[in-house]
Write a structure and sequence with these properties.
By secondary structure, the protein is α/β, with parallel strands linked by helices. It is built from twelve helices and nine strands. Helix content is about 45%, strand content about 15%. The strands form two sheets. Strands 7-6-5-8-9 form a five-stranded parallel beta sheet. Strands 2-1-3-4 form a four-stranded parallel beta sheet, with helices on both faces. It is globular. The chain binds phosphoric acid mono(formamide)ester (CP) and norvaline. Phosphoric acid mono(formamide)ester binds near residues 53, 124, 132 and 259.
């Protein structure tokens, strides 16, 4: 593994390896066992979109590993004035040991990896959010103890989270159902990947998707960059909500995950969110441990 660009690039073995290391790093942190695997290393973090979790967990994670992280707002870099990503990649490769980037187009992340010669980590694009899904898988395994015989159900927008969850959960060995309204289905590349799995189901019925699910996951109806479509999306996604009715269709011990930020009473009710807050905030914490594992794998 040279980069973390999207879940499609990872094998099951690579996913499990990252999760095992993440568990170990979490244990070491909780027991104050030093783990300076990246002493003296620097990570550049380019942000073209807002972030709370990604920024803070990467920066703190790098510090805990003995390294150093630089926050680079795209609007302050020459990239924001049109310097090509290909040139930025070749320059930054000479100063840094790794780059994390949050941007719009997946292509930009792939270009950065192609033109630079240091590891690139995708911190979210419109197409994928692999760091989040590694944290979700870590949390699912923590709460459920395994992936085999589990069903993950995603309800909502077939966007970056849905794309990465479908691929990540199928690769990990889970069954997957996704309920997305027409016009908001997952990316064709993801559906092409999933079509070889007979344990994958795509429907426009949230209740049907939720039947016997062990894990229910949703995401905002309007992602970053889609703020102008918020009203239109509220209409399109009406009914695509994790609520009591959906929870009743799932297994009685089903867990809930949400990448956050959450919009209560839109994609999830306040009641369900608060009832599953311990799972959701463990998931947020696991961003730190999963990303530290990714950085160690790529940069040590
Ligand atoms: N879940 C997630 O990526 O959160 P941030 O946008 O706060 O980084
Ligand atoms: N789908 C959301 C995820 C945020 C972490 C977005 O892209 O804004």
């Amino acid at each position: 593994m040279k980069h973390l660009l999207k879940m499609l690039d990872l094998s099951k073995e690579e996913i499990i390896d990252i999760l095992n290391l993440a568990d170990q790093l979490k244990y070491e942190l909780k027991h104050s066992i030093p783990h300076p695997h990246l002493k003296g290393r620097s990570l550049g973090m380019i942000f073209q979109k807002a972030s709370t979790r990604t920024r803070v967990s990467f920066e703190t994670g790098m510090y805990q590993l003995g390294g150093h992280a630089l926050f680079l707002s795209a609007s302050d870099l020459q990239i924001g004035r049109g310097e090509p990503v290909q040139d930025t990649a070749r320059v930054l490769s000479r100063y840094l040991d790794g780059i994390m980037i949050r941007t719009y187009k997946q292509e930009e992340v792939e270009n950065l990896a192609e033109y630079g010669n240091i590891p690139v980590i995708n911190g979210l694009t419109d197409f994928s959010h692999p760091c989040q899904v590694l944290a979700d898988l870590m949390t699912i395994r923590e709460f459920k103890g395994q992936f085999d015989d589990l069903k993950m159900c995603f309800i909502g927008d077939g966007n970056n989270m849905a794309n990465s969850l479908i691929v990540g959960c199928l690769k990990a060995g889970m069954s997957v159902s996704a309920a997305c309204p027409e016009g908001y289905r997952p990316d064709p590349q993801v559906l092409e990947f999933a079509k070889d799995y007979n344990c994958f189901e795509l429907t426009d019925s949230p209740i049907k998707a939720a039947e016997n699910a062990d894990v229910l996951i949703t995401d905002v109806w309007a992602s970053m960059g889609q703020e102008g479509e918020a009203e239109k999306r509220k209409i399109a996604f009406k009914g695509y909500q994790i609520n009591d009715e959906i929870m009743a269709a799932a297994k009685s011990d089903a867990m809930v995950q949400h990448c956050l930020p959450a919009h209560r009473e839109e994609e999830i009710t306040e009641k369900v969110f608060e009832a599953h807050a311990n799972e959701i905030f463990e998931e947020a914490e696991n961003r730190l441990h999963a990303q530290k594992a990714v950085m160690v794998k790529l940069m040590a």
